[in-house]
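Summarise this fold before class:
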Amino acid sequence: METRRLRLLLELSRRGSMREVADAMHVTTSTVSQQLAVLAKEAGAALIEPEGRRVRLTPAGIRLAAHAVTILAAVDAARLDLDPGATPSGNVRVAGFATAVRRSLLPAAAVLAADHPEVRLLIHEHEPFEAFDLLAADAVDLALTYDYNLAPAAFDATLETIPLWSAPWGLAVPAGAPGTRFADFAAADWIVNSRNTADEEVVRTVASLEGVEARVAHRADSLDLVEDLIVAGLGVGLLPAGRPVAPGVRLLPLGTPVSLRSYAVVRRGRAAWPPLALVLRLLRAAPDG
């Protein structure tokens, strides 16, 4: 199979329209159709089927497009590997949660700007489930995700996962509230993440171990907003132990240790692509890595 035809199939899986593929690849729509027909013969299976006025990939087409991601990445890496003097260059698309972007990616971006200006980071803030969807769709090259020790993530076999750092979390309560233990706040309203269920799972797990039930009342994505709600006396929640808390918030240790664990995640076989390999190398080498 020619890699050029695989690239057309991959673009069709992303864009959903032969006309959009033709525009992106600077060819005619007829050329796209003809080349995909040849690819179908080479594969021995129908790869596309009509859907109204458009087309969609068949199950076989979807599977081949998934293989194309790895195949094309390997070909790109091999081409550059044959030239030892080649300089990594290109855009690396990253989806990550805010803390990892600040803690891991921005220092890497500073090094790239100084030493490797040919590599450009395109950064988008997303929660893990959103980042995984973008990674699966080949809309990003790298996902910075997290889980908790009490709510471990299950990573797909098609992904390569690199642990980066971990951080303990504590119980954040109003500064003047009586009590020093989790159970002392059994009657409090709880504040959990609005876009990810992992911290709610952790809260309920810790509550179960403490013999109480956590009553979730508020959901907020921003840690700053969580603090504002706590200061207003509207509830309690979990916050990173290493992060300075706002005035009016007190952070208590948890009897059951809770740690957030950060990961760099790429599609398997893609990590050898030189620009991405360079970014991963910087992330691993960071002091917190």
Q: What stands out?
A: The CA atoms of residues 150 and 202 lie 6 Å apart. The first strand starts at residue 48 and ends at 51.
